Structures are given as C-alpha cells and as structure tokens.
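Protocol step 4 of 6: record predicted structures for both targets in the notebook before any analysis. Target 1:
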Amino acid sequence: MTSPAPTPLSDTTMTADPAAVFARLRAEQGHVAWVELEPGVGAWLVMGYPEILTITKQERLYSRDARNWRLFRNGTVPPDSALGPMMFFRDNVIGYDGAAHARLRRPLDAAVSSVDQRRMRRSVERICDLLIGDFAVRGRADLVADYAVIVPMLAIADLFGLDTMQGHDLLVAMQALFGSAEDAQEGNRRFEELLGGALEARRRTPAADLTTALLRHPDLRGDAEVLQSMVVMVSAGYHTTISWIAQSLRLMLTDPRFAARVRGGRLGVDDALDEALWRDPPMYNMPARYALRDVQLGGRWIQRGDALVLGLAAAGHDPRVHSGHQEREVGNRSHLAWSAGPHSCPGRVPARLITRTAVETVLHRLPGLALTAPADGIPLTPSPWTRCPASLPVSFSVPVPAGSGTTTP
C-alpha cells in the first residue's frame, strides 16, 4: 500500500482555516510532520511548541547553515529553485551559527538598542497621518495597499537615514525583489544600491541613525558586512511588520468579539497585537534548520541533512501550551512569533512601536471603520512562509483631523 502524498506546506498558509490543517497533521503525524515544499522536495514541519524550543536552542544538533541541506547538496533541489531566496545559504548573520553568528548579531542588537523610541514614534505618527490624509477624503481605502505596505518601509527608511523619496524608491525595489517576477533582479540591484548610497552618505556625514551605528561597530569587517547587515534588517523588518499590521487590522474588522473587546477597553492595543501574534504570526513557517546528525524529535527520526521548518503559527495552536481561550490569556507573550534562541528576531521593539502606532492611528482617525468585502473572501498573498492579507478594503465616516495625537507608549 502506497503512502499518501505529503501535505504541501502552502496548505497551512493559503487555507481559510489553518487551525484545522494543523489539527489534521497532528492527528496523522504528531507534532513533527513531513510536508512538501515543492514537488519532490520534502521537509519536517515542526508544529510543537517545546520541539521548536529544542531546535532553536541546540545549534550543535540543528544548524541554520543551509550548506548542510542534504537535498541541495545531492542535487534534488536545483540552484535555480524557487526555494532559494528563503532557504539557500546567505553570507550574513542569517547563515551562520555559533561564534560567527554571535559576532554578526552583536551589531544588530547594538543598533536596535540605540533607537530613540520617542523620535521614532513621532516619525511613524507623521507617516501614518500623511497616508491617512491622502485617502481620508474618499471615505474608502485599502488598508493594505494604501497603508500597511507603506508605513513600515517609510519608517524603516527613516531609521537608516533615507528621506521620504528614497523610502518610496526602496519600497518599489523591495516589491520587485520579493515579487519573484521578471524585475526581481533589478529590484535587488536597486535595493542594495539605495542602501549602499545611505552607507556612503553616512561615512561622509555621520548621524544618529542605524546606518551610522553599523558603520561604527567594531565587529563588522568592511563595507560588505555593513551592507549585508542593513539588507537583513530592512528586508526582515519590512515584511514581518506589514503582516503584523495587516493581520491585527483584519482581526478587528472580521472578528466581532475581538473588535468589541478592543473598543470596549477590555483589550488594550498591545494585548490585541499579541493576540494577533498568537493567531497569525508574521512568519507562519520559518525556514529552516538542518539536522547535523540523525536524531529523534517529537517521536520522529530526523536524518542528518534533513530540513526542519519552524511552524511558528502551528506552535501557537499547540494544545499543550495554548488553550485557545483568548480572554483567559490576555497579556500572554510567550508565543513564538519572534522565534527563540540565538536567531530570534532582534527587531521586536521597533516592530511593535511601528505596528502599535499604525493600528492606533487607524482606530483614532477613521471612525465607523467597516470592511467592504466578505470576511471570508479576503485574499491572501501567495506564500508557503507567510499568511498576509493582500487587501483590506474598508469604508469609514468623516475622520478626526490629523494632529489630534495618538496614545503614547
């Protein structure tokens, strides 16, 4: 009797009910399930909360270095595979473990800790007010295309010392780069060109921004490492923050009980943002770790060189750690949306500041906000890694004038 075909990983992100997919996979295979990344290419989807903690904290068993991936080394995965941008080795902080990773990680942590959060909040408020001012007179907007996609890039560009026009150029380049279409390579070239220009400008004229902080850090050896550190911070922060803003707004627009708790003051905005991270984290499935030897995990035998995908969303549905009763778990931030261990996200503080400000500004300035499409018909951006709304069409009544202010952290 032949075994059933493995579940495509994209089934967890492109379905209307991810929890049902996770439950089925657990019933069939346990907390570590064999899934298909692309035809003929399989990997382990690690859905268990404690199993993810095991992987992320044991670098000597589970490496981030994709050069250990057996299916790539033996030619099963070709060099031009669509999996490459997310799974192939990168010569930066993402690609290394141990001492090499720690050296490249220290500048990122130092740069983030240098951010002036009050100045950043004011900058993000200004960006949000300007964007809302552009569409407020229409009484209608797409809160993804007109807002959630733009706010993070302009905010991140400002952190690195790029002006508004350069921020818009960076946005266009990033959309091309991650669109994987014919203009992807040109987008990548333009993306690095813009960041390289900021690097050169800050070498001539230092400023209180992240580019200057990275240039000054003694652990970065030359312009190439500085540039790649900038690439990692901008690209990672951009997509995850878009998704967090969009998913938080989607919950408020489509879940009446969730929205009522927020509007009634029973759920603060930060608590609402954390609930979104439990339900729909920015990275649904985080690639990847690679087994350095044969090992048992969650009752499954993992072979040396196997790829393991961190099911961060699935871990939020692990019945061993999360009851599913959101009202009983207000303030619970033990989700794995930021991953864990040495490779956990270094940008969670600025990401929360951007997301909180963006969501608060919408709630404050757009009264009567309502979705103008069926809640079960919201399109998703195709990806096996993320589950981000592609559109949130809304209508609203006369907005509050800009400058009224949002709450402060």
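Target 2:
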Amino acid sequence: MACQQFDLVADRLQISHDERDRLKYPKRSMTVALPIHRDDGSVQVFEGYRVQHHLTLGPTKGGLRYHPDVTLGEVAALAMWMSWKCALTGLPYGGAKGGIAVDTRKLSNKELERLTRRYTQEMIPFIGPQVDIMAPDMGTNEQVMAWMMDSYSMHMGYTVPSIVTGKPVNLGGSVGRREATGRGVAYLVNRATDTVNLDITKCTAVVQGFGNVGSVTAYSLAKYGAKVIALSDVNGGLYNAKGIDLRKLETYLAEHNTVAGFPEADPISNEQLLTTPCDILVPAALERQITEKNAAKIQCRILAEAANGPTTPEADVILDQREEIFIIPDILCNSGGVIVSYFEWVQDLQSFFWTETEVVDKLFRILETAFTQTLHLSRKQTMSMRQAALSLGVSRVREAKKMRGLFP
C-alpha cells in the first residue's frame, strides 16, 4: 500500500526511477531475536524489528508496536508513511517504526519488562537522541517507554530522557502527549467542517477503535459539540442514534475493560459501524479497514483517518469519485502524536518544560499550517487530499536529498 501510494505521487511529480529508489528504500532494516525467561523458567524467543526509512532531515522518529501480526513489511510501510508525515508537518525527522510479534495479553508484567529491555539492548547500536527516537504505538504505553529509557540510560551510565518520547511526565515526558493524536484529529475535523460548510454542533460522529486515539478523539469531538452515535473496540461495537453518553461509557469501560455490552446502546458489527450514516467517520483502529468492498457503502461527509493506512489504494479509487466525501488523510490527520513527541524531545534536550496550554497552542499552529497547505495544493492542482499531503511530504524529502547530494 505504502509503495503504491508513493508510486502514484512519484508519477505525478515526474520523479526519475533512480531518484525513486533513493526515496523509497529504507536506510536500515533490522530483525532481531529476543530470547527471554518466562515466569515458569522456560525460555521463549520473540522476533523484533526496526526500520529507519531516511536520515536526511535529522534523526528518525517513530513508534514501537507490540502485536502478534507485526511483520517486517508492515513496519517498513509505517516507517515510510512516518517520513512523509514528518516532512509534511515540517519536523526535522526521518520516519522509523519498530515492532515485536507478541500477544501482550499472554505475558505477565515482568515478562513484558524483560522483553522490552532485551529489545532495547539489541537496538542500542542503532538508536540515540540524534539517531533514532522511539515512541509508543499499538500495544505499548508510557511504562514501556520508561523501561526503554532506563535500559538505554543504564548502558550509557547517565540518564538520557531524550532517547524516547511518550514517557511518564515525571521522567521527562511532555504534558499533553497522550492526548495529542486524538486532539489533533478533532481539531482537523473541526477545520474540515468549516471547509465543507457543516455546523459541527449539529454533526453526528462514528469512531472505530476506542483505544487511546479513538477515545480522546470521541471526547474532543463531543467538546466541539458533535454527537457520537457509534463506536467500537476490539470486542465489539455500540450504536445509539440519540448519542452515546461518553461519561457513563468511561465508567463502564473502567469496570469491564471493553465497550462491548454497554447497556445504553445497541450492539453493532464492525461492517455495520463503517457504513453507518453519519457526518464524521473516524477509523482509529487497524490499517486496511476501508476497502473496495465497502468504500461505495460509506455514508459520511468527512472521513478522518486517525489510524495509519485505514484506506486501501483500491478504495481510494472509489472514494476519489465520491466528491461529497472530504478525506483528511492519515499522514495529516494523525500527525498530532509525532508533533507533540517532537515537542517532548525538544524539551528533554533543553531540560526546559512547557505548560499544557503552550503545548496545545503550538500543536494547533502546526496542524493549521499543514492543513492549509494541503488544502491549497489539493484545490490548485485538482488532486485528492491524500495526493496533496503525500506530494508535499515526498517533495520536501526529495528536495533535501538533492541539496545534500550523494556521499561519497
């Protein structure tokens, strides 16, 4: 998917084939074996990955995900998207991504810590505050980042908070980092309602995925005045045409660890959720959710891609013909996380920390610039928002590589 999207943009930008290879191929791809002691005394080996896409604009930046289906190809695609995302938003980073093929539900907390520390140890030759900075992604959190920072710091002999972002605030994390992606999605949705002449206080919203990003997006949209009528997590979905009471759902979620079974809404399948009539549809779960099979059935005005790669290239062809749907592409829509990760890195390097008001204000300023530039290019050259966002990201990396030249 990532390569298909890149090739379409490269054709439009008339990039030569030798230049394409430089832009497309990852700088480094690592696969590591991760043996750990299980609590029962046995030893199990897990497979870990890290892909650094390019180092032209600065160190690489990207999340670390723990999921049983993680593969090197998936990690490489996510690293490439991260490159275009950082360039689009003007951050001095190349893209990276990491992952371990593991089902964390089958590990104890101690086993998870051993696995994290072992992965960090294996990565030490390839990471550093000026080389590659990790962050949380699917299946990882503040605690995992704290273990990584501690492992790297023990190796160096002194505390290095800037080696990861998404840490606990009392270990050098930034206020507003956890909420950053969801806040950014909601901000851009609000901007998009202005663009397509919708009143957000009269809009209905559907959110697929009620993890960190999806839940913060839902709460933020509700603050703007939108009514959330359907949402889901890995165990099931909910629908209530009158709106779901998010406060009551939060209490239910804390008790049951899932939204499934919430008594004040009807159950709904993932397929039904994606095709529910609404003003705002937010896929905030896994990639490849909107495909050629359901793209024609989607009934929304704004499609806000909070997940990475939720729409396949085949679905894009169908959606491009549906002018009534305004798409906020993933590399723009979910960029709030990496923007505030950048802020955290900057604060760690300076040992000077900002208030949450400053963080949110700076976040919205960068998002506003990126949104305006993407929308302007989309209208000027009559291309989709995805093509416009990717064109801006790819062009900036291409220009930087040209200016730096080829060594030696």
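Step 5 preliminary note on target 2. The chain has two domains: 2-7+22-161, 180-328. The first helix runs from residue 2 to 13.
Proceed to step 6 after PI sign-off.
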